[in-house]
Amino acid sequence: MSETTIGGIAGRMPKFIRRADPAVLTAFACIVLLLFVGSLYSRSFLSPEYLLQQLKVASFLGVIATGMMLVILLGQIDLSVPWSVAVGAMMASAMAAFGPVGVALAIPFGIFCGVLIGIVNGIGVAYLRIPSMIITLATNAVAQGLMVVYTGGFSPQDSATGAMRYLATGFAIPGVPNAVIIWALIGAAMVFVLTRTGFGRAVYGIGNRERAAYLSGIDTRRVVMIAFAVSGGLSAFGGVLLAGYASKAAQSMGDAYLLPSIAAVVLGGTSILGGRGSYLGTVAGVILITLLQSILSVMQMPEAGRQIIYGVVIVAMLLLYGRAPASR
Amino acid sequence: MKDWRYWLAEQRGTLLAFGIFIAMFVIYTSNHPAGFTANVVQTASNKGVLLAFVAMAQTLVVITAGIDLSVGMIFTLTNCLASWLVIGTGIETAFGVVAVLGTGLLCGAINGAIVIYGRLQPIVATIATGAVYFGIALLLRPFPGGSVNEDLADALTGRLFGVVPASLVVLLAVVLLVWVPFSRSVLGRAAYAAGSSEMAAYMSGVPIRRGKFAAYALGGLLAAIGGLFLTFFTYTGDAAYASGNAYTLFSIAAVVLGGVSLFGGKGSAIGAIFGALAFRTIGDLLFVFDFDPLWQPLFQGVILLIAVSLGAFVLFRVRNRLEWFL
């Protein structure tokens, strides 16, 4: 994946292209290709309204994928996304039922519940050294169990607060949906943390070799724990936004976000083994996935076909540029 | 050390799972309103065997230090396929069974090919192939339905000689026909060696790629046997996303309870079978104690959380802090 593999053609290209990660470039090339295919299919595909709508839908996935990226950079994975999303949405809506105070606290409370799930994940991974894949599956199951007990197995009746709806569907700046602004803010914060702070360097260090990071004086366990807490919080925030978008929470509303969030991060060139990847890639991955979903729904593909194409495209793209180096 | 001590050390996880299962099953039957009767045992074993097959499938892959997050979806896919094919005259039914098992084997082989020859990470690759398998299942059965050869279904889910549950006999047969030959073959040892230390295994000339590939493919086959049995129990095919996901999750829980190391190279499918049976029994304990079934998902989740946290006890044996980081 280094520059040597690109060969002679790249050597004659402008500097900013030569320095870019080939995976990110491929992802952006695929976005252009998808837009082209979409515009062949429908005239309105390239209209600004449609593209802005896509960006708005993408921002929910973008918020969730931001947390996932942080965890994947550590070389871990967070499979508790589905029910972290649902917990965030349900708890925020539930809080809204408690009068004006509840309405004011709804969003922070939803995020707080997600952070709690993330902290349990973090304790398991960082201090108990349980493989992240397993502990996050387990907390996902526990969160699901808690929500089933709480809601009685049905979608809860509480509806989203005005603030949640405003964040997800309003327009603070004319023409730009609030959800997109939120994603941009969270993305900017993430870029700052990853590239300009010690915490960010520690994340990359741990992803490369936790042992070395530990020996250079980083409290690796605290960093891992914080990363999982942030991931849980962002998943729950994504759930809050989704609840605002649909104006209520629903059972299994998060199921549709696990594979896309992982796929968005990995398709954006972040190594699933950790330690390598840029936020720009994740942005590309999120837009790519959203456009793919959108094209499939514009083509009125049934759910079955969507799942198949989706899985095949992800495997195919990973085979293109996400392969591990040969072991010999 | 004596030979039996080595054997004991090797089988510790399996024996522990066996012990947990026996203890839980005694609590279960002694509190069951009907008591320890052939009927209760038959129902319990029919439910347990489904998970046992999926857990065996997961074990094969976990032994190679991989993970198969698509087992539940292979299980669902083969269930839907069986509800179309395993029907009609004897020959048609036999053809259907072979086709279903072949499909499972193919699904496992695709996973294996992508992970081993495509060099993708098992987690991401199997989540993606799982989506594909679920999509195919949905194509086959957009709505629950279909039917199955009921004579065969009743024979395999009934009782032999009025006492022994037939499903347990099938499970035993599968262990003898698939697991025992595999674990004693060169390929099986290669799978273990690859999970234990891939580099060392490669240096010693062990056929790690073929071993891992065989493990993934046979995992698909075992999941298909599970899917076939689900069809025999329910007489229908149903492409249910939640159920497929739950089986994937429970298979991991069963594998952990059964003493199979998630880092690979350690454990056996026998342990995972007892882990699966124990997990099912614990989940059903709620019913004999008259709890609201709504609590079952939470209860199973908590058991899973506790089971995986038990693995943390090895930390107490760590002398050098650097051993925290693998």
Short description:
The complex is a heterodimer of chains A (328) and B (326). Chain A has 328 residues and is an all-alpha fold. Chain A has 15 helices and no strands.
Please tag this protein with its features:
heterodimer; A: 328 residues; mainly alpha; ABC transporter involved in vitamin B12 uptake, BtuC; globular; disordered N terminus; B: 326 residues; two-stranded antiparallel ribbon; 14 helices
What's the SSE pattern of chain B? HHHHHHHEEHHHHHHH
**What is the CA-based Rg of chain A, rounded?**
20 Å
Largest sheet of chain B: 2 strands, antiparallel
Overall outline of chain A: globular
Give the count of structural domains of chain B: 1
CATH topology of chain A: ABC transporter involved in vitamin B12 uptake, BtuC
Q: Strand tally of chain B, please?
A: 2
Q: What can you see in these coordinates?
A:
The complex is a heterodimer of chains A (328) and B (326). With 328 residues, chain A is an all-alpha fold. Helix content of chain A is 73%, strand content 0%. Chain A has one domain (48-320): ABC transporter involved in vitamin B12 uptake, BtuC, CATH 1.10.3470. The longest helix of chain A is centred in the middle third of the chain and has 29 residues, at 99-127. With 326 residues, chain B is mainly alpha-helical. Chain B has a single domain, classed as ABC transporter involved in vitamin B12 uptake, BtuC (Orthogonal Bundle). The mean pLDDT of chain B is 86. Chains A and B meet through helix 7, helix 11, helix 13 and helix 15 of A and helix 6, helix 10, helix 12 and helix 14 of B.
